[in-house]
Amino acid sequence: MKKMKVNGLILALITMLVLFFVLKDNFLDVMAVIGNANWLWLVFAFLIMLAHSTLQSLSLHNIILEYHPKYKFTRTLQLILITHFFNGITPFSTGGQPLEIYLLSKDGIRATKGTNIIMQNFILYQLALVILGLLALFFNYQFHIFKDLPVMSSLILFGFIINTAVMVGIFIISFGTRFNKFVVNVVIKLLAKLKIVKNKQKAIERWNERCDDFHEGATFLKENKMVCVKGFIYNFLSLVLLYSIPYFVFLAFHAGSNVNLLTTIVSSAYVMVIGAFVPIPGASGGIEYGFLQFFGTFIQGPVLSAVLLLWRFITYYLPMLLGGILLSLRKDAIKE
Q1: How many domains are there within the chain?
Q2: What is the pTM of this model?
């Protein structure tokens, strides 16, 4: 709880700093743009965000049913929404998965099964993320969308290489159990000699368990191809919806002619990669900088700032607030 408060304080400070830099030169103009917005498009953008969360829930529920056939979808949706809160207040969104395992255990799914469920869903999500990222790279190369941003393009390429490496690493961990345990033993023994790891045996056992979890999850997906295919489709579509949201915010501010769905999805994919490098809750600062750099190719001035603020509110702050409210209603989750 103390760590959560510290993360929340850091997030609040970074948010205020970002708002200052975004609004310091044209505050009144940005407020005027927001005041003239077509709020129906903003509501539609929020509904797209809900559809994104619903597809995420379908992906997770698709796997949960294999372990708990009577588990309710509304419970899974609640779980995903609460995860938005924990992902939002932890660096690199690391708080969501442990929370999901914990809440599943409260619903009668043992921690070992819960871990396998989350691992399987993560594998499918990472696969969808990499493939959509590669498609974004292809479309940018094909249509030269960001040919005047060489530094950012290099950073994006590096980011997608990292994501692809993570995906390859997951497959190695999932199917090379003996090799993984050998590497774990060598690395942890080395770290123990360097006094970085204190309890060598405990660390080896913990990482071996994680390797086993990945292996069991990947084996399950391999043997249940329809679960795998459906989960991938749900995750892929959920990311497409998430990446399309700025387009509808642009429409709300009467600037839809400056972008289209393709350029919006490619730009959003790039923005998320920039955010992945920022070790701050919500990737605050990095996300906003990336958004201004990429979408600034199509539009400038108060409208761009207004789009940034409303997009960030719809995709980050509002879901995190909703997740926090739902978490507070789960007495079994907050009493410990």
Answers
A1: 1
A2: 0.85
